[in-house]
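Lecture 7 notes: from sequence to structure.

We start with a single chain of 95 residues. Read the sequence below before looking at the structure.
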Amino acid sequence: MSRGDAKPGKVSDTVTRLTPMYRVILHNDDTNSQVHVLQALADVFSMNAPQAIRTMLEAHTTGSALCDILPLEQAEFRRDRLQAWSLTGTVEPEA
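Now the structure, written as tokens:
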């Protein structure tokens, strides 16, 4: 029986592969103003004010903050957009 001949109710022998996910991390810097960082987070990640403030303060106090978890291409795009705002961002595989 070919794969296209599968009957309803039969367990398929295909395997669904999940897309690997990556964390976009914002790193603290002492160069940019807090307002600049808040504007960048709103623009790049569509964060509302409370989310952006929480993320910015976490990066400020601990050195880094998780911004989002995305497939690799999207994560790299967001990291590049952070860099366009003169902020440091990295992409790490999700654990």
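The chain has a mean pLDDT of 90. Keep this in mind for problem set 3.
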